Amino acid sequence: MSDLGEYFSMRQKPRGIWKWILKAPIWLFKAHLGWLFGDRLLVIVHRGRSSGKRYETMIEVAAHDGETGEYIVTSGTGPRADWYLNILAAPAAEIWVRNSRYRHSGQRFLGTEEAVAVMKVYEAKHPKLAARLEATMGVSHDDTEESWRAMMERIPMVGFTPS
After folding, report:
1. Widest distance between CA atoms in the chain
2. If we measure between CA atoms, which residue out of 86, 91, 88 comes closest to residue 102?
3. What is the pLDDT of residue 90?
4. Which residues form the domain of 112?
């Protein structure tokens, strides 16, 4: 991969202009323009596991259950993403969806089998985007159940239910 491709890769922490670009939508949420993203993006407000510092992380929604209200997101950079490690240590303080902010939302970590099912639906709805994301994250599958499970063990999923 070229230096530029590695710079914009999701396999490592964003830095420089890429970090700024990824954080820009948070300002739209703060300006009450979150409705522009519909149910495709949400912001997770969490505390640093060591520092206790407040963080706001924008994440793409992989699935939204209209009946329960649950939003399912993936850790595209894997289980070592800071936001993911932070909510493992202490639940997210808030989630922001559209123009709403929910404190003390329910939070759960999906098992591999459920994550596979969610990702299959996501990939069917958004094949080009899913292919690009999988390539960027350095994961893939060959349509066998074993390869799907192996891929989703590297991409944790979390469900948030607003309360």
Report:
1. 44
2. 91
3. 95
4. 3-161
Question: Total structural domains in the chain?
Answer: 1
CATH assignment at residue 60: 2.30.110.10
β 157-161/71-74 pair status: antiparallel
The residue type at 121: V
Give the contacts of 6 (CB within 8 A, at least 6 positions apart): 12
Under-50 pLDDT residues of the chain: 1-2, 4-9
**Residue-wise pLDDT tens digits, 34-49:** 999 988 999 999 999 9
User: What integer pLDDT is reported at residue 13 of this predicted model?
Assistant: 66
Distance CA 95, CA 92 (A): 7
pTM for this predicted structure: 0.83
Provide the 10 A C-beta neighbour count for residue 145.
Answer: 10
pLDDT of residue 7: 44
